[in-house]
Write a structure and sequence with these properties.
heterodimer, A: 95 residues, alpha/beta, Rossmann fold, 3 helices, globular, B: mainly alpha, 18 helices, 6 strands
Chain lengths: 95, 466
Amino acid sequence: MKKVYVVCAAGVATSTMVRMKVEDFLRERGIDAHVTQYRVSELSVDRVDADAIVSTTGMPDEFAEVVPVLNGVALLTGIGQQAVLEELAEVLARS
Amino acid sequence: MKFDEILAGVGNILNGLGATIVLPFIIIIVGLVFGLKFSRAARSGLTIAIAFVGIGLTVGLLGSTVSAIGEAFADASGTGLRVMDIGWPAASALAFGSSVGYIIIPVGIVLNLVLVAVSVTNTLNIDLWNYWHMAFVGALVLFVTENFWMALFAALICFVIALFLADWSVPLVRRFFKLPGISIPHLQSAGYMLLAVPFAWVLRKIPGLSKLRLDPDTTRRRLGLLGEPMVLGFLIGLALALAARQDTVAALTTAVNIAATMLLIPRMVGILVEGLAPLADAASTFMSKRFAGREINIGLDAAVLIGNPAVIAGGLLMVPVEIALALALAPLGNGTLPFVDLADGPFVAALLAPLVAGDLLMIVILGAIVMGIGLMFATQLAPAITDMVRNSAAVDLPEGYSQFTVMSDGANPISYLFYYLYQTPAVVAIIVSLLFVGGLYILKEKFPLGERLLPIADPDAKPVSA
Protein backbone atom coordinates (compact mmCIF):
# COMPACT_ATOMS: atom_id res chain seq x y z
CA MET A 1 0.00 0.00 0.00
CA LYS A 2 1.45 3.33 -1.07
CA LYS A 3 1.17 6.45 1.01
CA VAL A 4 0.47 9.87 -0.41
CA TYR A 5 0.40 13.08 1.60
CA VAL A 6 -1.70 15.92 0.32
CA VAL A 7 -0.49 19.14 1.88
CA CYS A 8 -1.95 22.62 2.04
CA ALA A 9 -1.88 25.64 4.27
CA ALA A 10 -4.67 24.84 6.69
CA GLY A 11 -5.04 21.15 5.88
CA VAL A 12 -8.66 21.87 5.10
CA ALA A 13 -9.83 23.53 1.94
CA THR A 14 -7.44 23.17 -0.96
CA SER A 15 -6.02 19.86 0.25
CA THR A 16 -9.55 18.43 0.35
CA MET A 17 -10.09 19.37 -3.30
CA VAL A 18 -6.78 17.81 -4.26
CA ARG A 19 -7.24 14.72 -2.10
CA MET A 20 -10.54 13.96 -3.81
CA LYS A 21 -9.00 14.27 -7.27
CA VAL A 22 -5.99 12.18 -6.33
CA GLU A 23 -8.19 9.48 -4.79
CA ASP A 24 -10.48 9.37 -7.83
CA PHE A 25 -7.48 9.09 -10.13
CA LEU A 26 -5.75 6.36 -8.10
CA ARG A 27 -8.97 4.37 -7.89
CA GLU A 28 -9.45 4.59 -11.66
CA ARG A 29 -5.89 3.37 -12.19
CA GLY A 30 -6.30 0.63 -9.64
CA ILE A 31 -3.38 1.93 -7.58
CA ASP A 32 -3.72 0.92 -3.95
CA ALA A 33 -2.80 3.98 -1.90
CA HIS A 34 -3.71 5.72 1.28
CA VAL A 35 -4.11 9.47 0.94
CA THR A 36 -3.92 11.74 3.98
CA GLN A 37 -4.20 15.50 4.35
CA TYR A 38 -1.79 17.64 6.31
CA ARG A 39 -1.10 21.28 7.03
CA VAL A 40 2.31 22.27 5.84
CA SER A 41 3.28 23.59 9.28
CA GLU A 42 2.63 20.28 11.06
CA LEU A 43 5.00 18.24 8.87
CA SER A 44 8.64 17.84 9.70
CA VAL A 45 11.17 16.15 7.45
CA ASP A 46 12.24 13.46 9.89
CA ARG A 47 8.66 12.28 10.39
CA VAL A 48 7.64 12.02 6.74
CA ASP A 49 6.54 8.50 5.86
CA ALA A 50 5.15 8.86 2.35
CA ASP A 51 5.87 7.68 -1.16
CA ALA A 52 4.89 11.04 -2.58
CA ILE A 53 3.73 14.45 -1.45
CA VAL A 54 1.30 16.52 -3.48
CA SER A 55 1.32 20.07 -2.21
CA THR A 56 -0.89 22.97 -3.18
CA THR A 57 1.52 25.30 -1.51
CA GLY A 58 5.30 25.69 -1.69
CA MET A 59 7.13 23.19 0.53
CA PRO A 60 10.43 23.95 2.27
CA ASP A 61 13.22 22.59 0.06
CA GLU A 62 14.40 19.98 2.56
CA PHE A 63 11.33 17.79 1.86
CA ALA A 64 12.26 17.28 -1.77
CA GLU A 65 15.45 15.60 -0.57
CA VAL A 66 13.60 12.76 1.17
CA VAL A 67 10.45 12.27 -0.91
CA PRO A 68 9.19 13.33 -4.36
CA VAL A 69 7.20 16.55 -3.98
CA LEU A 70 4.65 17.31 -6.70
CA ASN A 71 3.10 20.70 -7.27
CA GLY A 72 -0.64 20.28 -6.83
CA VAL A 73 -1.73 23.75 -7.91
CA ALA A 74 -2.65 22.35 -11.33
CA LEU A 75 -5.21 20.12 -9.62
CA LEU A 76 -6.90 23.27 -8.33
CA THR A 77 -6.89 25.26 -11.55
CA GLY A 78 -7.56 22.24 -13.76
CA ILE A 79 -4.88 23.46 -16.17
CA GLY A 80 -2.17 20.83 -16.66
CA GLN A 81 -3.96 18.56 -14.22
CA GLN A 82 -3.52 15.34 -16.19
CA ALA A 83 0.25 15.79 -16.40
CA VAL A 84 0.56 16.04 -12.62
CA LEU A 85 -1.61 12.97 -12.07
CA GLU A 86 0.45 10.95 -14.57
CA GLU A 87 3.61 12.06 -12.81
CA LEU A 88 2.14 10.88 -9.51
CA ALA A 89 1.34 7.47 -11.00
CA GLU A 90 4.93 7.23 -12.26
CA VAL A 91 6.41 8.24 -8.93
CA LEU A 92 4.29 5.66 -7.12
CA ALA A 93 5.18 2.95 -9.62
CA ARG A 94 8.87 3.63 -9.01
CA SER A 95 8.76 3.76 -5.23
CA MET B 1 -49.51 41.11 -2.39
CA LYS B 2 -46.56 43.17 -3.47
CA PHE B 3 -43.47 41.57 -4.96
CA ASP B 4 -41.44 42.66 -1.94
CA GLU B 5 -43.85 41.00 0.45
CA ILE B 6 -43.77 37.77 -1.52
CA LEU B 7 -39.97 37.81 -1.39
CA ALA B 8 -40.01 38.57 2.31
CA GLY B 9 -42.39 35.64 2.77
CA VAL B 10 -40.13 33.32 0.81
CA GLY B 11 -37.16 34.62 2.78
CA ASN B 12 -38.89 33.87 6.07
CA ILE B 13 -39.70 30.34 4.97
CA LEU B 14 -36.07 29.80 3.90
CA ASN B 15 -34.75 31.17 7.19
CA GLY B 16 -37.16 28.92 9.03
CA LEU B 17 -35.71 25.90 7.22
CA GLY B 18 -32.14 26.91 8.03
CA ALA B 19 -28.82 26.37 6.36
CA THR B 20 -28.82 22.60 6.73
CA ILE B 21 -31.81 22.40 4.40
CA VAL B 22 -31.57 25.39 2.08
CA LEU B 23 -27.92 25.51 1.06
CA PRO B 24 -27.82 21.84 -0.02
CA PHE B 25 -30.83 22.41 -2.29
CA ILE B 26 -29.19 25.42 -3.90
CA ILE B 27 -25.97 23.44 -4.34
CA ILE B 28 -27.89 20.63 -6.05
CA ILE B 29 -29.54 23.08 -8.44
CA VAL B 30 -26.26 24.85 -9.26
CA GLY B 31 -24.58 21.47 -9.74
CA LEU B 32 -27.26 20.40 -12.22
CA VAL B 33 -26.91 23.70 -14.13
CA PHE B 34 -23.18 23.03 -14.48
CA GLY B 35 -23.92 19.58 -15.83
CA LEU B 36 -23.29 17.36 -12.83
CA LYS B 37 -25.23 14.11 -12.79
CA PHE B 38 -28.15 14.16 -10.36
CA SER B 39 -26.65 11.49 -8.11
CA ARG B 40 -23.37 13.42 -7.82
CA ALA B 41 -25.16 16.73 -7.19
CA ALA B 42 -27.42 15.16 -4.57
CA ARG B 43 -24.42 13.60 -2.86
CA SER B 44 -22.77 17.02 -2.74
CA GLY B 45 -25.90 18.54 -1.26
CA LEU B 46 -26.21 15.89 1.43
CA THR B 47 -22.50 16.14 2.26
CA ILE B 48 -22.89 19.87 2.80
CA ALA B 49 -25.92 19.36 5.03
CA ILE B 50 -23.93 16.87 7.11
CA ALA B 51 -21.02 19.29 7.33
CA PHE B 52 -23.36 21.94 8.72
CA VAL B 53 -24.55 19.53 11.39
CA GLY B 54 -20.93 18.71 12.26
CA ILE B 55 -19.83 22.34 12.36
CA GLY B 56 -22.83 23.20 14.52
CA LEU B 57 -21.98 20.47 17.03
CA THR B 58 -18.28 21.24 17.28
CA VAL B 59 -18.68 25.01 17.38
CA GLY B 60 -21.29 24.43 20.08
CA LEU B 61 -18.66 22.57 22.12
CA LEU B 62 -16.18 25.39 21.60
CA GLY B 63 -18.79 27.97 22.54
CA SER B 64 -19.83 26.24 25.74
CA THR B 65 -16.21 25.69 26.75
CA VAL B 66 -15.13 29.29 26.22
CA SER B 67 -18.36 30.66 27.68
CA ALA B 68 -17.52 28.88 30.89
CA ILE B 69 -14.08 30.44 31.21
CA GLY B 70 -14.32 33.65 29.17
CA GLU B 71 -15.80 35.99 31.72
CA ALA B 72 -13.93 34.38 34.61
CA PHE B 73 -10.67 34.77 32.72
CA ALA B 74 -11.29 38.46 32.04
CA ASP B 75 -12.14 39.15 35.69
CA ALA B 76 -9.55 36.95 37.38
CA SER B 77 -6.67 37.96 35.12
CA GLY B 78 -7.54 41.65 35.15
CA THR B 79 -6.81 41.85 31.43
CA GLY B 80 -10.30 42.99 30.51
CA LEU B 81 -10.18 40.73 27.45
CA ARG B 82 -13.72 39.41 27.56
CA VAL B 83 -14.41 39.00 23.84
CA MET B 84 -13.54 35.50 22.62
CA ASP B 85 -12.35 34.91 19.09
CA ILE B 86 -14.31 31.84 17.95
CA GLY B 87 -12.57 31.68 14.62
CA TRP B 88 -13.21 31.38 10.93
CA PRO B 89 -14.99 28.00 10.92
CA ALA B 90 -17.85 29.46 12.95
CA ALA B 91 -17.81 32.59 10.81
CA SER B 92 -18.02 30.59 7.61
CA ALA B 93 -21.00 28.60 8.87
CA LEU B 94 -22.64 31.84 9.95
CA ALA B 95 -21.97 33.37 6.54
CA PHE B 96 -23.13 30.44 4.39
CA GLY B 97 -26.08 30.03 6.76
CA SER B 98 -27.36 33.55 6.12
CA SER B 99 -29.87 34.44 3.41
CA VAL B 100 -27.09 36.11 1.39
CA GLY B 101 -24.94 33.01 1.90
CA TYR B 102 -27.61 30.77 0.34
CA ILE B 103 -27.29 32.45 -3.04
CA ILE B 104 -23.78 33.92 -3.04
CA ILE B 105 -22.36 31.02 -5.07
CA PRO B 106 -24.67 31.16 -8.12
CA VAL B 107 -24.94 34.96 -8.08
CA GLY B 108 -21.20 35.38 -7.61
CA ILE B 109 -20.39 33.07 -10.51
CA VAL B 110 -22.74 34.95 -12.84
CA LEU B 111 -21.31 38.33 -11.78
CA ASN B 112 -17.77 37.03 -12.31
CA LEU B 113 -18.60 35.75 -15.81
CA VAL B 114 -20.12 39.11 -16.76
CA LEU B 115 -17.15 41.10 -15.43
CA VAL B 116 -14.67 38.89 -17.28
CA ALA B 117 -16.76 39.13 -20.46
CA VAL B 118 -16.64 42.95 -20.37
CA SER B 119 -12.91 42.81 -19.53
CA VAL B 120 -13.15 44.65 -16.22
CA THR B 121 -11.25 41.83 -14.53
CA ASN B 122 -8.97 38.98 -15.60
CA THR B 123 -9.69 36.84 -12.55
CA LEU B 124 -11.97 33.81 -12.66
CA ASN B 125 -12.72 33.11 -9.02
CA ILE B 126 -13.19 29.32 -8.91
CA ASP B 127 -12.53 29.24 -5.18
CA LEU B 128 -16.22 28.76 -4.32
CA TRP B 129 -15.45 27.90 -0.72
CA ASN B 130 -14.09 31.37 -0.01
CA TYR B 131 -17.22 33.05 -1.31
CA TRP B 132 -18.16 32.84 2.36
CA HIS B 133 -16.05 35.92 3.12
CA MET B 134 -18.30 38.01 0.85
CA ALA B 135 -21.37 36.37 2.38
CA PHE B 136 -20.02 37.26 5.81
CA VAL B 137 -19.99 40.96 4.95
CA GLY B 138 -23.46 40.46 3.48
CA ALA B 139 -24.64 38.89 6.74
CA LEU B 140 -23.12 41.78 8.68
CA VAL B 141 -24.89 44.33 6.49
CA LEU B 142 -28.12 42.34 6.78
CA PHE B 143 -27.75 42.59 10.54
CA VAL B 144 -27.25 46.37 10.30
CA THR B 145 -29.85 47.26 7.68
CA GLU B 146 -32.30 44.34 7.94
CA ASN B 147 -32.62 44.81 4.19
CA PHE B 148 -31.84 41.75 2.08
CA TRP B 149 -31.18 43.74 -1.11
CA MET B 150 -28.68 46.07 0.57
CA ALA B 151 -26.95 43.04 2.06
CA LEU B 152 -26.77 41.29 -1.29
CA PHE B 153 -25.48 44.48 -2.90
CA ALA B 154 -22.78 44.81 -0.25
CA ALA B 155 -21.74 41.17 -0.69
CA LEU B 156 -21.48 41.62 -4.45
CA ILE B 157 -19.47 44.82 -4.04
CA CYS B 158 -17.13 42.75 -1.85
CA PHE B 159 -17.00 40.13 -4.58
CA VAL B 160 -15.81 42.80 -7.03
CA ILE B 161 -13.36 44.18 -4.46
CA ALA B 162 -11.91 40.68 -4.09
CA LEU B 163 -11.54 40.35 -7.87
CA PHE B 164 -9.85 43.75 -8.17
CA LEU B 165 -7.49 43.07 -5.27
CA ALA B 166 -6.65 39.76 -6.96
CA ASP B 167 -5.88 41.52 -10.26
CA TRP B 168 -3.84 44.09 -8.37
CA SER B 169 -1.58 41.51 -6.72
CA VAL B 170 -1.08 39.27 -9.77
CA PRO B 171 2.54 40.42 -10.29
CA LEU B 172 3.30 39.67 -6.62
CA VAL B 173 1.94 36.16 -6.95
CA ARG B 174 3.93 35.53 -10.11
CA ARG B 175 7.19 37.18 -9.02
CA PHE B 176 7.34 36.30 -5.34
CA PHE B 177 5.52 32.95 -5.19
CA LYS B 178 6.36 31.86 -8.75
CA LEU B 179 2.75 31.01 -9.49
CA PRO B 180 1.98 32.32 -12.97
CA GLY B 181 -1.63 32.39 -14.16
CA ILE B 182 -2.97 32.52 -10.62
CA SER B 183 -4.53 35.31 -8.60
CA ILE B 184 -5.83 35.44 -5.05
CA PRO B 185 -9.38 36.78 -4.64
CA HIS B 186 -9.33 35.83 -0.98
CA LEU B 187 -11.09 38.68 0.77
CA GLN B 188 -9.41 38.03 4.12
CA SER B 189 -5.74 37.94 3.10
CA ALA B 190 -6.30 40.56 0.39
CA GLY B 191 -8.13 42.82 2.83
CA TYR B 192 -5.14 42.76 5.17
CA MET B 193 -2.91 43.46 2.17
CA LEU B 194 -4.92 46.55 1.22
CA LEU B 195 -4.48 47.98 4.71
CA ALA B 196 -0.77 47.08 4.75
CA VAL B 197 0.22 48.68 1.43
CA PRO B 198 0.82 52.22 2.75
CA PHE B 199 2.71 50.88 5.78
CA ALA B 200 4.84 48.62 3.57
CA TRP B 201 5.68 51.68 1.46
CA VAL B 202 6.89 53.53 4.58
CA LEU B 203 8.80 50.51 5.99
CA ARG B 204 10.70 50.09 2.76
CA LYS B 205 11.83 53.73 2.97
CA ILE B 206 13.41 53.27 6.43
CA PRO B 207 17.15 53.03 5.91
CA GLY B 208 18.89 50.05 7.50
CA LEU B 209 15.72 48.13 8.38
CA SER B 210 16.26 45.59 5.63
CA LYS B 211 19.78 44.95 6.95
CA LEU B 212 18.37 43.34 10.12
CA ARG B 213 17.62 39.93 8.71
CA LEU B 214 15.65 37.27 10.58
CA ASP B 215 16.08 33.73 9.34
CA PRO B 216 12.78 32.09 8.35
CA ASP B 217 14.13 28.53 8.64
CA THR B 218 15.34 28.85 12.23
CA THR B 219 12.10 30.54 13.24
CA ARG B 220 10.06 27.79 11.68
CA ARG B 221 12.00 25.07 13.51
CA ARG B 222 11.85 26.86 16.87
CA LEU B 223 8.14 27.68 16.72
CA GLY B 224 7.04 24.62 14.76
CA LEU B 225 4.88 23.33 17.60
CA LEU B 226 2.71 26.45 17.45
CA GLY B 227 1.84 25.42 13.90
CA GLU B 228 -0.13 22.48 15.21
CA PRO B 229 -3.60 23.75 16.10
CA MET B 230 -4.33 21.05 18.65
CA VAL B 231 -1.14 21.77 20.59
CA LEU B 232 -1.81 25.48 20.37
CA GLY B 233 -5.41 24.90 21.50
CA PHE B 234 -4.34 22.78 24.44
CA LEU B 235 -1.71 25.25 25.65
CA ILE B 236 -3.91 28.32 25.29
CA GLY B 237 -6.92 26.51 26.74
CA LEU B 238 -4.86 25.45 29.74
CA ALA B 239 -3.41 28.93 30.24
CA LEU B 240 -6.88 30.53 30.07
CA ALA B 241 -8.45 27.99 32.39
CA LEU B 242 -5.70 28.38 34.99
CA ALA B 243 -5.88 32.16 34.72
CA ALA B 244 -9.65 31.83 35.21
CA ARG B 245 -8.90 29.95 38.48
CA GLN B 246 -10.36 26.62 37.42
CA ASP B 247 -9.04 23.69 39.47
CA THR B 248 -6.56 21.30 37.84
CA VAL B 249 -9.06 18.71 36.65
CA ALA B 250 -11.46 21.29 35.25
CA ALA B 251 -8.57 23.15 33.62
CA LEU B 252 -7.27 19.99 31.94
CA THR B 253 -10.79 19.19 30.72
CA THR B 254 -11.11 22.67 29.30
CA ALA B 255 -7.72 22.38 27.60
CA VAL B 256 -8.58 19.00 26.06
CA ASN B 257 -11.98 20.25 24.91
CA ILE B 258 -10.39 23.22 23.20
CA ALA B 259 -7.66 21.08 21.64
CA ALA B 260 -10.47 18.83 20.39
CA THR B 261 -12.36 21.68 18.78
CA MET B 262 -9.18 22.97 17.12
CA LEU B 263 -8.76 19.58 15.48
CA LEU B 264 -12.42 18.70 14.89
CA ILE B 265 -13.88 21.95 13.55
CA PRO B 266 -11.53 22.14 10.56
CA ARG B 267 -12.29 18.45 9.86
CA MET B 268 -15.98 19.36 9.66
CA VAL B 269 -15.16 22.22 7.32
CA GLY B 270 -13.21 19.68 5.28
CA ILE B 271 -16.49 17.81 4.80
CA LEU B 272 -18.13 21.02 3.59
CA VAL B 273 -15.34 21.51 1.06
CA GLU B 274 -15.72 17.86 0.02
CA GLY B 275 -19.33 18.65 -0.85
CA LEU B 276 -18.30 21.76 -2.77
CA ALA B 277 -15.43 20.11 -4.66
CA PRO B 278 -17.38 18.51 -7.55
CA LEU B 279 -19.21 21.80 -7.98
CA ALA B 280 -16.00 23.83 -8.01
CA ASP B 281 -14.61 21.43 -10.57
CA ALA B 282 -17.66 21.73 -12.80
CA ALA B 283 -17.72 25.51 -12.38
CA SER B 284 -14.08 25.89 -13.31
CA THR B 285 -14.53 23.77 -16.47
CA PHE B 286 -17.66 25.72 -17.35
CA MET B 287 -16.01 29.11 -16.79
CA SER B 288 -12.65 28.34 -18.39
CA LYS B 289 -14.31 26.91 -21.52
CA ARG B 290 -16.08 30.19 -22.14
CA PHE B 291 -12.89 32.22 -22.07
CA ALA B 292 -10.48 29.94 -23.87
CA GLY B 293 -7.73 31.89 -25.60
CA ARG B 294 -7.93 34.93 -23.34
CA GLU B 295 -5.34 35.60 -20.72
CA ILE B 296 -7.21 34.72 -17.56
CA ASN B 297 -5.90 34.22 -14.06
CA ILE B 298 -7.49 31.46 -12.03
CA GLY B 299 -8.53 32.80 -8.63
CA LEU B 300 -7.52 30.50 -5.77
CA ASP B 301 -7.42 30.34 -1.98
CA ALA B 302 -4.55 32.24 -0.29
CA ALA B 303 -3.68 28.77 1.07
CA VAL B 304 -1.63 28.18 -2.09
CA LEU B 305 0.82 30.88 -0.94
CA ILE B 306 1.44 29.54 2.52
CA GLY B 307 4.25 27.05 1.99
CA ASN B 308 6.65 29.92 1.40
CA PRO B 309 9.20 29.85 4.27
CA ALA B 310 8.85 33.58 4.99
CA VAL B 311 5.06 33.21 5.16
CA ILE B 312 5.17 30.18 7.49
CA ALA B 313 7.74 31.83 9.76
CA GLY B 314 5.88 35.15 9.73
CA GLY B 315 2.62 33.34 10.46
CA LEU B 316 4.11 31.45 13.41
CA LEU B 317 5.58 34.65 14.84
CA MET B 318 2.11 36.20 14.65
CA VAL B 319 0.98 33.86 17.47
CA PRO B 320 3.01 35.51 20.26
CA VAL B 321 2.75 38.91 18.57
CA GLU B 322 -1.06 38.81 18.49
CA ILE B 323 -1.31 37.77 22.14
CA ALA B 324 1.13 40.50 23.19
CA LEU B 325 -0.77 43.06 21.10
CA ALA B 326 -4.09 42.06 22.63
CA LEU B 327 -2.68 42.63 26.14
CA ALA B 328 -0.84 45.83 25.21
CA LEU B 329 -3.87 47.34 23.49
CA ALA B 330 -6.31 46.40 26.27
CA PRO B 331 -5.99 49.82 27.97
CA LEU B 332 -6.69 51.47 24.58
CA GLY B 333 -10.00 49.71 24.16
CA ASN B 334 -9.14 46.26 22.86
CA GLY B 335 -11.38 43.61 24.39
CA THR B 336 -10.60 40.77 22.00
CA LEU B 337 -8.65 37.73 23.08
CA PRO B 338 -7.25 36.22 19.87
CA PHE B 339 -7.81 32.51 20.10
CA VAL B 340 -9.05 30.08 17.46
CA ASP B 341 -7.70 32.14 14.57
CA LEU B 342 -4.25 32.29 16.14
CA ALA B 343 -3.63 29.06 14.26
CA ASP B 344 -4.11 30.91 11.01
CA GLY B 345 -1.34 33.46 11.23
CA PRO B 346 -0.01 32.36 7.82
CA PHE B 347 -3.18 33.76 6.24
CA VAL B 348 -2.28 37.11 7.76
CA ALA B 349 1.26 36.92 6.45
CA ALA B 350 0.41 35.47 3.02
CA LEU B 351 -0.03 38.69 1.06
CA LEU B 352 2.02 40.90 3.39
CA ALA B 353 5.20 38.95 2.65
CA PRO B 354 5.55 39.93 -1.02
CA LEU B 355 4.91 43.62 -0.22
CA VAL B 356 8.26 43.67 1.59
CA ALA B 357 9.97 41.12 -0.67
CA GLY B 358 9.88 38.43 2.00
CA ASP B 359 11.82 40.31 4.69
CA LEU B 360 10.73 38.49 7.84
CA LEU B 361 11.21 41.37 10.27
CA MET B 362 9.16 43.69 8.06
CA ILE B 363 6.46 41.00 7.65
CA VAL B 364 6.10 40.78 11.41
CA ILE B 365 5.99 44.57 11.79
CA LEU B 366 3.34 44.80 9.07
CA GLY B 367 1.42 41.92 10.64
CA ALA B 368 1.56 43.63 14.03
CA ILE B 369 0.21 46.87 12.55
CA VAL B 370 -2.58 45.15 10.64
CA MET B 371 -3.60 42.85 13.49
CA GLY B 372 -3.25 45.63 16.07
CA ILE B 373 -5.78 47.66 14.11
CA GLY B 374 -7.67 44.43 13.46
CA LEU B 375 -8.07 43.69 17.18
CA MET B 376 -9.78 47.07 17.58
CA PHE B 377 -12.04 46.35 14.60
CA ALA B 378 -12.89 42.88 15.91
CA THR B 379 -13.73 44.32 19.33
CA GLN B 380 -16.06 46.90 17.86
CA LEU B 381 -17.79 44.28 15.72
CA ALA B 382 -18.18 41.91 18.68
CA PRO B 383 -21.70 42.98 19.76
CA ALA B 384 -22.97 42.46 16.21
CA ILE B 385 -21.15 39.15 15.75
CA THR B 386 -22.32 37.87 19.15
CA ASP B 387 -25.93 38.62 18.21
CA MET B 388 -25.48 37.06 14.80
CA VAL B 389 -24.06 33.89 16.35
CA ARG B 390 -26.92 33.68 18.85
CA ASN B 391 -29.57 34.20 16.18
CA SER B 392 -28.03 31.92 13.59
CA ALA B 393 -29.60 28.56 12.99
CA ALA B 394 -26.30 27.32 11.60
CA VAL B 395 -24.35 27.66 14.84
CA ASP B 396 -26.00 26.53 18.02
CA LEU B 397 -24.48 28.07 21.13
CA PRO B 398 -25.73 27.65 24.65
CA GLU B 399 -26.59 30.76 26.62
CA GLY B 400 -23.39 32.07 28.12
CA TYR B 401 -21.99 35.31 29.29
CA SER B 402 -19.17 35.72 26.83
CA GLN B 403 -19.03 37.96 23.86
CA PHE B 404 -17.79 36.53 20.61
CA THR B 405 -15.93 37.83 17.62
CA VAL B 406 -13.92 36.32 14.79
CA MET B 407 -10.43 37.56 14.05
CA SER B 408 -10.31 36.27 10.48
CA ASP B 409 -13.04 38.55 9.18
CA GLY B 410 -13.83 40.76 12.16
CA ALA B 411 -10.28 42.11 11.96
CA ASN B 412 -10.64 42.68 8.24
CA PRO B 413 -10.76 46.39 7.33
CA ILE B 414 -13.36 45.65 4.66
CA SER B 415 -15.81 44.08 7.12
CA TYR B 416 -15.30 47.06 9.42
CA LEU B 417 -15.75 49.63 6.67
CA PHE B 418 -18.95 48.01 5.44
CA TYR B 419 -20.37 47.60 8.92
CA TYR B 420 -20.22 51.35 9.52
CA LEU B 421 -20.81 52.47 5.96
CA TYR B 422 -24.13 50.64 5.77
CA GLN B 423 -25.38 52.39 8.89
CA THR B 424 -25.50 55.60 6.82
CA PRO B 425 -28.46 56.30 4.48
CA ALA B 426 -28.68 53.78 1.65
CA VAL B 427 -27.81 56.33 -1.04
CA VAL B 428 -24.59 57.29 0.73
CA ALA B 429 -23.64 53.64 1.29
CA ILE B 430 -24.23 52.78 -2.36
CA ILE B 431 -22.33 55.79 -3.72
CA VAL B 432 -19.34 55.31 -1.41
CA SER B 433 -19.26 51.56 -2.24
CA LEU B 434 -19.14 52.34 -5.95
CA LEU B 435 -16.48 55.02 -5.48
CA PHE B 436 -14.39 52.54 -3.48
CA VAL B 437 -14.64 49.96 -6.25
CA GLY B 438 -13.81 52.62 -8.85
CA GLY B 439 -10.76 53.72 -6.88
CA LEU B 440 -9.52 50.14 -6.64
CA TYR B 441 -10.02 49.72 -10.38
CA ILE B 442 -7.77 52.70 -11.09
CA LEU B 443 -5.18 51.45 -8.58
CA LYS B 444 -5.02 47.98 -10.06
CA GLU B 445 -4.92 49.23 -13.64
CA LYS B 446 -2.34 52.01 -13.13
CA PHE B 447 -0.23 50.83 -10.19
CA PRO B 448 0.19 47.04 -10.29
CA LEU B 449 1.67 45.80 -7.02
CA GLY B 450 5.16 44.42 -7.27
CA GLU B 451 5.75 46.32 -10.50
CA ARG B 452 5.01 50.01 -10.38
CA LEU B 453 4.08 50.09 -6.71
CA LEU B 454 6.39 48.36 -4.18
CA PRO B 455 8.43 46.68 -6.92
CA ILE B 456 10.11 43.34 -6.23
CA ALA B 457 12.60 41.41 -8.32
CA ASP B 458 11.28 39.46 -11.29
CA PRO B 459 12.79 35.98 -11.01
CA ASP B 460 11.68 34.83 -14.44
CA ALA B 461 15.28 34.96 -15.61
CA LYS B 462 16.15 32.11 -13.22
CA PRO B 463 13.04 30.09 -12.36
CA VAL B 464 13.02 28.37 -8.98
CA SER B 465 10.95 25.26 -8.37
CA ALA B 466 7.83 26.01 -6.35
